[in-house]
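Predict the holo structure. Ligand: flavin-adenine dinucleotide.
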Amino acid sequence: MATSKDFSIAICGGGLCGLVSAVALSRAGISVTVFEASSFSQEAGAGVGLGPNAVRALKGLGVFDTILARSDRPEPASRLFSFVSAYDPHDCIYNYETSCSDPAALAIYRPAFLDAVLSLLDPSVIQFNKRCTSVVLSEDGKQRLHFADGTIHEADLIIGADGIRSVVRRYVLGSESNNSLVFPNSSAYRGLIPTKVLQQAGVQTVLTGRPVCFVGSGKHMIVFPIKGITVASINIVVFVTDYDKPVQPELPYPWVENSTEQELKDRCGDWGHDPSIILDHLKNPSKWNIHAVNPSLQSYIRNNVVLVGDAAHGMLPHLGAGVGQGFEDVFLLVQLLTHPQAKKHNLPELLKQYNIVRPPRANGVLQASAEAGRMYDSFSSQEDTGKLQKSLPGIWEDVWGYDLNKDVATVFESLYISKVFQVSNTSL
Ligand SMILES: Cc1cc2nc3c(=O)[nH]c(=O)nc-3n(C[C@H](O)[C@H](O)[C@H](O)COP(=O)(O)OP(=O)(O)OC[C@H]3O[C@@H](n4cnc5c(N)ncnc54)[C@H](O)[C@@H]3O)c2cc1C
């Protein structure tokens, strides 16, 4: 296919944000290549919750219907959490209410999401088993990706979509030694349990309606049904955080290990009837040592290299908002790069606009996510109910209600005012 632009793009990382970027950019006729380190055979089989802002971004990028078709619900449903005491008798503390005009959201099995997006891509666009080791700016101003297999790829623009342990972020930060990553002494134990199994085991809390957050002291459990998997299942994530320890530097990789039911029970031994039954059935949970970008990045760009998703703002997952911020990044970037007047010579100006809008927004959500986790983990007894009932309302409003189209209008206006884009009858 003939390319519509005089620039080429290399995307480092074929995860959620990298693949969605590739679909939207290649559909617009831009020359794109994705380099993915894995062969996808080790893709973690966890669920991912997508909030209304994530859904709007995916709709705007033209991929949502294909993703939805891989989910077994005809329409995306709301993800309004019930906050329930982890202790007997599991009082409901707060049912989240939103003023968001379109609160449609989706929880989907991550491999199903990736399969759906991959089906929209010409296979020649993506190269697997290509681990990027560094980004280098050549003397002639080209960006080069260097790979572990000794090969090099040159492009006019590099999108770093290589997740929280991003190699591209090192280039953007200008430091090989500091990757701006911390371990806040927080682990997530994850697994899936068939819905029927939990129902038959006598769990009283309704698990197939609203997502549930069982709140406790220093730990909480997120429980929600997920789609895109053959057996109807409940996604379980138990977060345990040691707030007494100082935040640590990045832990040695891998951060995911196999855990046991016993380890989990030892850490959550004081929980009541329903979470205890769930833990009893969470066989061979995986344990994820959760990291976050900290301090947050003031800039997501350097030269013609731009970060999206966790590479830019890997955050604690307590608002289920991490990938939604990534899709917002991708939405704005795609609007800029596919504009009829986007050309190789004005790429730096386009990235500058991206960088004015995205860091304040995504870093704000990163901060709010950390605060939400502390809130959920502050519930020691019934006496804390009133405090949580005051602090929980509204925690998702800024995340979900965000107006992406307003951002697009603002950056285009700025580009016209600064004469990077020329006003013509067709561009107004
Ligand atoms: C326990 C837990 C629960 C979560 N729950 C939610 C949730 O409910 N909702 C939500 O929005 N978010 C959630 N998140 C966060 C969400 O998973 C991330 O925000 C999301 O995966 C980020 O997408 P990404 O494309 O930026 O990175 P990733 O999905 O991590 O993709 C990065 C890709 O880059 C590849 N890669 C890495 N390094 C290289 C390299 N050097 N060269 C080439 N390729 C490379 C990787 O193999 C991977 O395929 C959760 C996270 C955790 C840990």
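Residues 12-18, 35-38, 48-49, 131-132, 161-163, 167, 188, 190, 237, 288, 290, 309-311, 317, 320-324, 326 surround flavin-adenine dinucleotide (CB under 6 Å). The chain has a mean pLDDT of 93.
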